[in-house]
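Journal club prep — side note

Before the paper discussion, L.F. wants everyone to see what a predicted structure for a comparable chain looks like in token form. Sequence:
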Amino acid sequence: MTTGELTYREHPLETGCAGVLRVVWSLRGTATAALPEPIVPDGCAELVFNVGDPIDAQAPQPGAGFTRQPRAMLVGPTTRPMFVRPGRAVDVVGMRLEPWATGLLGIPARDLRDRAVALDELSGAARRFAGAAVDEIGRDRRLPRLQRLLAAEFAPAAAAAVSAQPLVQLIRRNGQTPSLRQLAAILGRSVRSVQRSFAEAVGIGPKLLSRLARVQRALRLAADAPAEPWIRIAVRAGYYDQAHFIREFSALVGMLPSQYRPERESLTTAFVERR
């Protein structure tokens, strides 16, 4: 996907990474957009490596200004849109974690919510991985060796996220959220135990994740059919009325649907979930 002179690519996942990584992507070229564009939250954490010009971003907290982003960082799951203002020369690589894998890097997922942490501030296994990442990023944009290192380093901790994974998959597949009582019964655990596991593994609650999945679905539908009226997109995405759709779209995309231009070749649609 090309945005002006930017080319976005998604790269194949290495064997053994499917349960930890969702997407490995790269964005390269020359930025031409005059205004910052929103990156819409999707419930995932990302490892982001910038080897191009510095990038400024507006944190998702209300009233936050633009700040210079670290060259290598772990971006936690966000609850609001983040507006990004890239430099002219863009060369960024990202490793998007599965939602249930957010807490595998040694930081409880709930502590990463709406935060970006420089990788050199991490400790333990995460710091070792960060050092390898900085060395590897200049060699191969597909990051096959780094993917394998991530899987080997953190796969043993994946068992801690197993209670959240079925719920995440159900939300992403159908946009439906079973009650915590129902999920606890399926897993044979207490409601409190499921709540705690979800907070530690994903960092956001099931209801919020469902909202993010729904708005991502609406953006994907809009990108695939730019001429489709928003009222039809809202129904297809799972909103129960137009007011509900406008309220959630404004909160999670940062603008009204009528202000959003669902162009296939835009920075925003480059990061819309495709599956």
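L.F.'s comment for the group: The first strand starts at residue 2 and ends at 3. Keep this in mind when we get to the figures.
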